[in-house]
Amino acid sequence: MLLSRMISTAMDGIYQTSGRFGKKISKVKLNPTQQVPYWLYLLECEGDRLYAGIALDVEQRYFQHVFGMGAKFTRGFTPKRVVAARQYANKGDALRAELQLKALPRAKKIAFFEDLPPGEACDCDTRQSLS
């Protein structure tokens, strides 16, 4: 399944189009108990570097990085492609997984996406890694 198809499937019901031609996109108000899925993604950038981040929409975030509207790192090292992405149930789980991923050596970063079942959060304690 293509990444864009997985992302659009996950985003169903979160965004809706309105207006005469359906061009205007606005966020749908969610039930407070309903959690929005977040994605952890890994980009391959110029200079054979890797960049990890989280987003609601990986495809949109990728293009923000490409056009210089993303992180400072990707302004200096333009992204070439999305290497991997994994969906998480909420922002907290995605942030914890991002911290765990960034702590790994380069050789293990791609394997990180293959080791955990899709959508399973890491079991890392962020307080230990920050102190």
Structural notes for this entry:
There is one protein chain. This protein is of the alpha+beta class. 39% of the residues lie in helices and 25% in strands. The chain has 6 helices and 5 strands. It has helices spanning 3-11, 58-66, 72-76, 91-103, 106-115, 126-130, and strands at residues 15-18, 24-27, 38-45, 49-55, 79-88. The strands form 2 sheets. A 3-stranded antiparallel beta sheet has the order 4-3-5, with helices on both faces. A hairpin with a 5-residue loop joins β1 (15-18) and β2 (24-27). It is globular and about 45 Å long. The protein starts with a helix and ends with a helix.
Binned, the helix content reads: 25-40%
Strand and helix order:
HEEEEHHEHHH
Mean pLDDT metric: 76
| Biggest beta sheet summary | 3 strands, antiparallel
Q: Low-confidence segments, ≥5 residues, pLDDT <50? A: 1-25, 121-131
Distance between the termini: 40 Å
Structural class, by secondary structure, is alpha+beta
* Number of E-state strands: 5
- What's the shape? globular
Computed Rg = 16 Å
Biggest sheet strand order reads 4-3-5
Kindly estimate the percentage of residues that lie in beta strands according to DSSP.
25-35%
* Distinct helical segment count: 6
Topology (elements, then pairings):
Blueprint lengths: L2 H9 L3 E4 L5 E4 L10 E8 L3 E7 L2 H9 L5 H5 L2 E10 L2 H13 L2 H10 L10 H5 L1
Antiparallel strand pairs: 1-2, 3-4, 3-5
Comma- or semicolon-separated keywords:
131 residues; alpha+beta; three-stranded antiparallel β-sheet; two-stranded antiparallel sheet; 6 helices; 5 strands
